[in-house]
TrEMBL record:
This is PiggyBac transposable element-derived protein domain-containing protein. The lineage of its organism: Eukaryota, Metazoa, Spiralia, Gnathifera, Rotifera. It comes from the Eukaryota. Residues 1-25 are annotated as: Disordered. Signal peptide: none annotated. PANTHER family: PIGGYBAC TRANSPOSABLE ELEMENT-DERIVED PROTEIN 4. Residues 16-25 have a biased composition (Low complexity). Residues 83-331 form the PiggyBac transposable element-derived protein domain.
């Protein structure tokens, strides 16, 4: 191809933009101006590639022993460690006590009715809440048609473990009043009812793992067919209906590091015009992991020349499939009419391959 490659002024613009950011009072305006000025218009050629590698700051490596520590998990484990130790890496006593407090508060805010027979209610405790959460996890492993079926005494379908942990009435009472936020605090956020637990989990996820070099960002759909203002329908997903999450995962441990719940137009991702909505999701989730030499893997909804350029400037490698009509990519339709054709185009740090 005869297209000219970007010149060296592209790199100079980055340094100029960074100095502008420190002197300008409007952080949001500076950030958008920085991205607009620093990203070049990509011109692809078939014979030029500025290969470069980013050194990975491996926080899991024990330099004296040359070994990885606990595969990135930041908890001390021994042969006598209990499964509860791993559970508390995500939900510790602070989070559980918060759920206990809000559940008891919510029950006290609702009148005791004869129909609900709530005269039997007694405030829940930390140990009981742990048992309740464990029981809820067990119901996901052993699905049944109705909650009451877990306490069935039918010889063909009985599961005695549930009766040993809770009576059916107590479990249903806890399920009825399970709560995560204070109704006295007014907030227009669509996630207000679960915001405290979401923020606590996000903090625990990111702080309990030292990620490896390779990271992945993708969408996930949590099954939900009930009433929900931001419920999504995605036919290609297994569940089809539910809450959509954008998640960043450590490829080494396969643990979620952070996530964003999609709530429609109110989703707080901080739009970056230069890379669009999908690129803004990536930059939001990757914020703590930039300039550390990570490699990011994404699918074709995220991949774009501008995003990969921006990640490269942030000392982060990126790889992903791409849509043929993505803005900024050259058209290779004429070269790809026959099987077995392999074509590669380059633009500074970006290599585009077709086969």
């Amino acid at each position: 191809m005869a297209n000219r490659l970007p010149n060296s002024n592209c790199h100079e613009n980055v340094a100029d933009s960074q100095s502008d950011m420190s002197s300008n009072g409007s952080q949001s305006f500076c950030r958008q101006s920085y991205y607009r000025r620093s990203l070049c218009r990509h011109r692809f050629a078939d014979n030029h590639f500025a290969d470069s590698h980013h050194y990975f700051e491996d926080q899991n490596l024990n330099e004296s022993a040359g070994e990885h520590l606990n595969e990135g998990i930041k908890i001390s484990t021994t042969e006598t460690s209990h499964p509860l130790d791993y559970f508390e890496a995500s939900i510790d006593e602070t989070i559980a006590n918060s759920i206990v407090a809000e559940t008891n508060r919510y029950q006290s805010q609702n009148p005791v009715g004869e129909r609900l027979n709530m005269a039997r209610w007694s405030d829940t405790s930390l140990s009981e809440m742990y048992s309740f959460l464990a029981t809820m996890m067990l119901t996901g492993i052993l699905p049944k048609n109705r909650i009451r079926d877990y306490w069935s005494t039918d010889r063909l379908s009985s599961t005695p473990i549930f009766m040993q942990i809770f009576t059916r009435n107590r479990f249903q009472d806890l399920l009825r009043f399970l709560y995560f936020s204070n109704n006295d605090l007014v907030d227009a956020d669509r996630l207000v009812k679960i915001k405290p637990i979401i923020m606590a989990l996000k903090s625990k996820f990111s702080s309990s793992v030292n990620p490896g070099q390779n990271l992945c960002i993708d969408e996930s759909l949590m099954l939900w067919k009930g009433r929900l203002a931001f419920k999504q329908y995605i036919p290609s997903k297994r569940n089809r209906f539910g809450m959509k999450f954008f998640e960043i995962v450590d490829c080494q441990t396969r643990l979620v590091l952070d996530f964003i719940i999609y709530t429609g137009s109110t989703t707080d991702i901080g739009i970056i015009p230069a890379v669009g909505i999908s690129g803004s999701v990536v930059m939001n989730l990757m914020k703590p992991y930039l300039y550390k030499g990570h490699n990011l893997f994404v699918d074709n909804w995220y991949t774009s020349p501008n995003l990969f350029d921006l990640l490269h400037r942030s000392k982060t490698g990126a790889c992903g499939t791409v849509r043929s009509n993505r803005r900024g990519l050259p058209s290779l339709a004429s070269k790809m009419q026959f099987r077995g054709i392999h074509a590669v185009n380059y633009s500074w740090c970006i290599a585009q391959q077709f086969w």
